[in-house]
C-alpha cells in the first residue's frame, strides 16, 4: 500500500461510514489524521477505539463545516497539534430526499447546499491558505463527488446541484493553485452501502422521483454494483502521492463500478 508517513490528513464527516474508512486507511499508511463530524456520539466512539490503536496520531473535533469560524478553528487545531497540513479530503455530505424542484423545500435546499457545497468551499478556502503559507508549502485536496455531479437524474434537485458545484469547485481550485504546488481532484462515486448519508431518508423520500430515477438506469443492488468503501479509501491515498497528485490535478474520476451501466 502507498505510504503517507508523516503527513497530516484532514477528513471531514469522518466519524463513521466512508469518512472513517478513509481515515483508517491513512492511519494505517502512517499519516497523522484529523477528523471532524457534527455527531459527537460518533466522535466519542471513534476516540475510544482509536486511542487503543493509534495513540496520539489522531485528532477529533466536532465541527459544522458550513460554519466558517468553526472550519478555521478546525484547521488551526490541526496545525497546532501536527505542525502542518498535507491532505484535505472533503467527505462531509448529506443526501436530499429525492425531491424535484417543484417539491423541494427551501429549507432542504439550503441545508444540502450548505453542507455539500458551501462546506467544501469553506474547508478548501481555509486549507489553501494554510497550504500556501506553511514551511514546505503545497498539498492535495480530494473532493468526494458523485454520479450526480455530472448526471442530472440520479438524485433530487438539491443534491444534484450541490455535487455539480463540487465538480466546479474542484476544477477551479486545480486551475488556480497548481503553480503553488496545491492540487485538487474529485472522485465521482456511484451507489454506496454502509454510509451515513442514508440517514437523510429517515423522514421518507419523494417516491415518485425516486422510482423515476431508479427506472431510468440500472437497478442499484448493494453487494453487486455498490463501490466498496475500502477501494475508495485506497484511491484517496493513491491520489495523495507526490508523483500522482500533479498529473491528476483537476481530474474528476468516475469511480462508480460502472453503475449506472455506461
From TrEMBL:
<dbReference type="GO" id="GO:0016616">
    <property type="term" value="F:oxidoreductase activity, acting on the CH-OH group of donors, NAD or NADP as acceptor"/>
</dbReference>
<dbReference type="Pfam" id="PF00106">
    <property type="entry name" value="adh_short"/>
</dbReference>
<dbReference type="GO" id="GO:0048038">
    <property type="term" value="F:quinone binding"/>
</dbReference>
<keyword id="KW-0521">NADP</keyword>
<dbReference type="GO" id="GO:0006633">
    <property type="term" value="P:fatty acid biosynthetic process"/>
</dbReference>
<dbReference type="InterPro" id="IPR020904">
    <property type="entry name" value="Sc_DH/Rdtase_CS"/>
</dbReference>
<dbReference type="InterPro" id="IPR002347">
    <property type="entry name" value="SDR_fam"/>
</dbReference>
<protein>
    <submittedName>
        <fullName>Uncharacterized protein</fullName>
    </submittedName>
</protein>
<comment type="similarity">
    <text>Belongs to the short-chain dehydrogenases/reductases (SDR) family.</text>
</comment>
<dbReference type="InterPro" id="IPR036291">
    <property type="entry name" value="NAD(P)-bd_dom_sf"/>
</dbReference>
